Batch of 3 targets.
Target 1
Amino acid sequence: VTTIGSSAFYNCSSLTSVTIPDSVTTIGYEAFHACTSLTSVTIGDGVTTIGNRAFVGCSALTSVTIPDSVTTIGDSAFRECTSLTSVTIGNSVTGIGNKAFYGCSKLKTIYCKPTTPPAIYYYQTDAWSDLSNTNTFPSNSGMKIYVPRDSYALYTSYPSTSNNNMSQGQVKWYGYKSRIEPYDFE
């Protein structure tokens, strides 16, 4: 098995735990959508893509570690995971989709390991009109985003408006500046 297909476990409300083997490279669209009893997910080291809406509405999921093999986290991938309190984003992630963690009302801790800030995608007519509201992460009180200490300045610098190469509304991390803290990853 190399792909968990679209809607493969859609609305499997009795599913409590899943281990995705290293042979899997892609978790498809809505693969685990509305698995409301899912409390534990282990994502194998072969996964490179977490598809759009892959875990949307998994309201019992409390934490997730995205392995270093993953490069893309799709739009709304973990949206409305209302029990999610912590996320670790592996060091190879280059793009985080629109509203990837939107509605995760208990999310307090994000460990973001890439030394180059991943692109944050969101859809808006004027990409520069409101950098503080990208909707990728919630604006939960007390939420912190921990980034590599040596990359802190990259994550918190104001983006250059002269860079018009903003595919799908690509935005830097400036909007989350007040939540970003330097961290020493092992």
Note: The mean pLDDT is 89.
Target 2
Amino acid sequence: MQFALMRHAEAEPYAPTDALRELTPYGRDQVYQEAQHSPITFKRIIVSPYLRAQQTAKIMAEVMGITQLEYCPAITPEGAVSRALLSLTDRVTDKTLIVCHMPIVAAMSQILTDGYYQNPQPFSLAEIRCFEAITFAEGVAEPLYRE
């Protein structure tokens, strides 16, 4: 199966709470650009409950023709990576996009590919990393690179 991890796009620096930070106009443009260049046409999107991730996911859904988002409360910025992976294990299927935050997105990326967590490579804003794997599990994903 193929799946991807995505970090939300640029968000406003301040809001009443971190969870309520909205995308900037530039952030919205970032998402449209990424969606148009995605090597995978996604069929489902799982997203953090934070507003900036939801706004990112809604733009991706619009471009991909997806009508419904699925929410996962475990993939927030302060979430535990082990809990996040466990909550996603049975939910990720072929052509799934997971939209969340740093540092959890980088941690999941490294654990899914290398099987461990140590100095993961950070994601840029609105970055999508695509993978191929027989299942959504530690150490079995292979990165797919854009051409």
Note: The chain is about 30% helix and 20% strand.
Target 3
Amino acid sequence: MRRCGRCGFRVRFGDRVHRHLFNGGALSETANLARWNARLTEIDKAIVAESARWGDYQRPAQPHTREGDWLPHLDWMAQNYWPQINGVALQRYRDAGLYPALAAPAVTPFGSGAGYGPGFSFSMANPNAGGAILYSLDGTDPRQAGGAPHPSALTYGGESVALGFASGGAALKARVFDSGSGEWSALADADFAPRRDFDQDGIDSDWELLHQLDPEDPGDAAGDGDFDGRSAAEEFAADTDPRDPASRFEITQTTVRADGSVHLIWSEQPAPRLRHPRCGIARRTVGRAAKRDRRRGGGRDDLRGRPAAAGAAVLHRSCANPLMAREAAPGAPSKIPFRGLQGASSMRRFVRP
């Protein structure tokens, strides 16, 4: 498509620029660094021989070397070139009239990755001094051809936008619109898809298939096939094997220290390390505040600054996300939030005596 003075082309071009330069797109800083580092790995050793071809005869007393010339250049690229180049390119597109002056809405989180669970919501922010965010959830561009707002476009008021677990997901399209100047930002488009749960029992259908449960029978969520006292729903939350009574995750001791930190000791026999078809090998982790000393068959964690109380509850995420743990008084919110947690309905609660 050749460049022309028609507005439609410039709008579509700007939308493509935004798609590829932001939010993990093909030309985003993250993607550029990944490609760059992949090439560096391939030629890392070959540079030793290649450096002999860089004109040592011009300075025989100080020949070019990998350590003296190549590695410092890589540091300069990492610290100066890659962090700035996208902003430079964006300004060039703006100067050429191929990218709008208004910045596009920031969407958090941008897409749902492997799928979202119950209670999921997202939010948006307008990075501009003026204008309003217009958006749709059905894939309709809020800007009509010609520049008028689409009649079905919604106006964002700063609230979190909740997506139903059984809604089938959403195709978000959002722009910032300045009604005074009639200008639009580039398009921010993100796809949100619910985690696959055919029978709506709160258990990922892939996990049910992996463990020989029926993904179309909601009743098996309450079943206890291995007679270990935990339902399939609880085993799903703890990422243990619902067919093996020895597969367990239990907090065996909780100690509150003088400095206010909480010391946990647990006994663990996880499910076989099978690769989950959607979330890969599930791993148990805790927040940054935890100091880990994991051992085979068990482990210890120090949770600094976490409130503790008798009968405290340990909250776990499903295998679709890293397992997080914290202690709090029953019914009382913790002061330290779960990173990436999307709603209480996506957690399971285990209260140990």
Note: The mean pLDDT is 75.
